[in-house]
Amino acid sequence: MSNTNLSRRGFLRTSGAAGLVTAAGGLASPAIASPKPIRIGFVSPQTGPLAIFAESDRYTLETYAKAIGDGLMINGTKHPVEFVVKDSQSSSNRASSAAQELIFDDEVTILTATSTPDTTNPVADQAELNGVPCVTNDTPWQPHFFGRGGNPEKGFQYTYHFFWGLEDVISTFINQWDMLDTNKVVGALWPNDPDGNGWSDPKLGFPPVVTERGYQLVDTGRYQNMSDDFSAQIAAFKDAGVEIVTGVMIPPDFVTFWTQAAQQGFNPKVMQAAKATEFPQAVAPLGDRGDGLSVEVWWSPEHPFSSTFTGQSSADLAADYEAQTGNAWTMPLGFKHSLFEVTLNALQRSEDPTDPDSIAAALAATDVETVVGHINFANGPVPNVAKTPLVGGQWHMEGGKPVLKIVENGDHPEIPLTGEMKPIG
Amino acid sequence: MVWINAVLQGVLLGGLYALFAAGLSLMFGVMRFINMAHGDFIITAAYLLLALVTGFAIHPALAVPLVIVALAAAGYLNQRILLNRVLGKDILPPVLVTFGLSIIIQNALLEVFSADSQKLQAGWLDTASFKLSEDLAIGALPLLMFLAAVAVIAGLQFVFYKTPLGRMLRATSDDPEIVPLMGGSNAHIFAIATALASVVVAIAGIFLAMKTNFDPAAGPARLLFAFEVVIIGGLGSLWGTLIGGIILGVAQTVGAQIDTGSQVLAGHLVFLALLVVRPRGLFPKT
């Protein structure tokens, strides 16, 4: 053997190419005349407990199908573009097999996936394993990068991700506490799940920063999701005189806690429930009890960014979505749009849009203004990751409807404030 | 004081669990029928109430009986048309069929109501409470749920042991092969039992709609606790179901008071311990 470094994948690729050359020889030339269609595989949780993240999928795909029309110009050739969409059913196992189907049965050119580690991690793992370029977003970058065993020295070869990280939500949340006059006693509601464990991590999570910034933390421990009773936490918070409550909770747990807190006479000045209060559909059923809840904001119609692909501003995108679907805008909308912005941008810059390595190289060189902010994978905290801005929001009831106001922009002053942080009650 | 509070809240929580479990206990008791879609039926009732109250702007006082009647009718027809066909010596076919029903219901709800997390606003009832002392307060809604559970169990007990219908139900439960010889129709009696269970399901769904957020996928999570409650109380025993609910509720809240991480675990441990000590539950009837 002269080439001892020949890997299994390399061998398959070389022999596959040889097979193609042989086949092409027999088929003669017309195959070259019509360019190969580009297939974009897309995995998202359309059904199951995470389905609320996928509400804007259909709208986004239709927008792109319309904007692309009969093809995308790449290096002077028009390539037809097809989207192949798979439902992860909110399960990481299903997401993994959906990615495999897209790679082996549909033979997609590039994979995309969004929303929570349960979707983005298995899809990116399959992509990396099988040498298919992949773009993901809407999972904080630590659970995505480290959750897949990423090495900050090396990074990944084919998979790229953009979103904010734990450090951003810590900073944003504590900035919000600073805006109000409180006794600086903070109660924590972190569940026993990947999010809760990350947020409560004694080294990388909230606890060290909370103490450093002069707050006292009351953490009663990791509770189980789908708890029907929070009286132990409420008793502990009342006992310690907690005025600020922060957490990352699933909607039913948050509502159980919030209702029980009122029944037990516990009324904090600040209530932050990431995940549970990110969507207007989840806050509206609370009625007046939703007024003053705060949450991190990753995208809004006020974000001063525009799509490079359709030219729409954030406000245009949200307005068009509301007009087309009748639903209120949600944060994932901007990220779904930006996912394909980054994907199509890389395809257009690639030297050969049918070659995975060429697309991966184009992805690595991404430097584009999207509707969620500037994406450049070279400047990330770790390789293959780009960060998007995070600000603090608060729900204000206006005419009986919850409106998300941006009340804190300490880390990203380019995003305008639209309201003022107020204590609850 | 925190322990008194934990036990008190646990008893109230037990009412909710008993309410979730009573329908299951009834079907289990009469037909040896394990309904895997029980939790999804509860969610369906919650959505139905939500649709009537917010969608069609029907007053809750009218919507609640409508939901109960609708569920009872649906339960009767479901048993008569579908479930009776799979009822037999083998317990596997009903499990498989109701498991399939569970998936169908979840996806149908997703199609109709979308994945949005919903809740029925109960206005002042949501946050009202009775203050017993500085540290003790009883929420009006949890108290109402507990009283509803007691009323439902007492009502079922009455129907079962004091009425001709109850006699037929008990007879069918004891020996389904002899009842037809006496002129009874098993198919009809089973369907009546399911209709009764569905009334309880409707009541559970109505309270769930007010208690917290629910979404189309929220059903199966309710099933596990319901099973535990039925087993703790003993198969076929209605008062046992109430006691089972209270035991599970108190185990959870007291467990949470020791360590919030062990809330759900404490309930499971008590369940396991009871299985070891009394494998047939506390008050087995069969």
From TrEMBL, chain A:
InterPro entries documented for this protein: BCAA_transport (IPR051010), Leu-bd (IPR028081), Peripla_BP_I (IPR028082), TAT_signal (IPR006311), TAT_signal_bac_arc (IPR019546)
Domain Leucine-binding protein: 37-378
Keywords: Amino-acid transport, Signal, Transport
GO process terms (BP): amino acid transport
Coiled coil ranges: none
Superkingdom of origin: Bacteria
Gene3D superfamilies per UniProt: 3.40.50.2300
Family statement: Belongs to the leucine-binding protein family.
Protein name: Amino acid/amide ABC transporter substrate-binding protein (HAAT family)
Classification of source organism: Bacteria, Pseudomonadati, Pseudomonadota, Alphaproteobacteria, Rhodobacterales
UniProtKB/TrEMBL annotation, chain B:
Pfam families: BPD_transp_2
Keyword Membrane: yes
GO function term, MF aspect, one: transmembrane transporter activity
GO cellular component, one term: plasma membrane
UniProt keyword terms in alphabetical order: Amino-acid transport, Cell membrane, Membrane, Transmembrane, Transmembrane helix, Transport
Top-level taxonomic group: Bacteria
Subcellular location(s) per record: Cell membrane
Membrane topology, record value: Multi-pass membrane protein
UniProt similarity note: Belongs to the binding-protein-dependent transport system permease family. LivHM subfamily.
Name assigned to this protein: Amino acid/amide ABC transporter membrane protein 1 (HAAT family)
